[in-house]
Specification:
two-stranded antiparallel ribbon, alpha/beta, 33% helix, 7 helices
Length: 208
Amino acid sequence: MKNLRLPMSESTARSLKLGEIVTVSGLLFTGRSRLHIRAIEENIFPPIDYERINCFFHVGPVMKKEDGIWRVVSCEPTSSIRFERYGANVVRKFRLRTLIGKTTMGARTAAALKEVGGVYLSKIGLSGNSLRKQIRKVHNVYFLDELGKTEATWIYEVEEFGPFFVAIDAEGNNYFELLASDVEKKIPEIEREMGIAPDYAFTEVNAE
């Protein structure tokens, strides 16, 4: 398992293989829906040096201030696919090299990552409580008063953060899409082994 230093270089990102398991060490910033919407629709975004901090962690953390110092109580990654509407634009706007989240993202974000030379890393059976132990320091917070602790942007210093796996590589390949395609190809064989007729119709559930 590789431990990757942040900020990740383009050459490192392009060298990573789909499905490869990695950890990251260095500085990253957090955000959820409000960061995406404000950055793209309103051109309001944290005044970060995005060349130095180019890893975006999709999370709404639980934070607590003790003796004047912020600490992370929990930082469970949130589902990244919900940001697909703005994801590609955010990647291009800040030339992001690394995205970290849960599940996957769509074709537009994959294309943007291919363009800038970046990767999307997805969680592997981790809990937010275990990840918080790998956060060495909370360096800063932006828009805390107007957005609150969950939607604010935090700057974390992490050490061997993860592990995560490469769910979208720098060539735009999507692990989950390839997996779904592979499963689809195997369904007829599985149905034959289980004695399910080719014309069998599964029950349709009416959601109304």
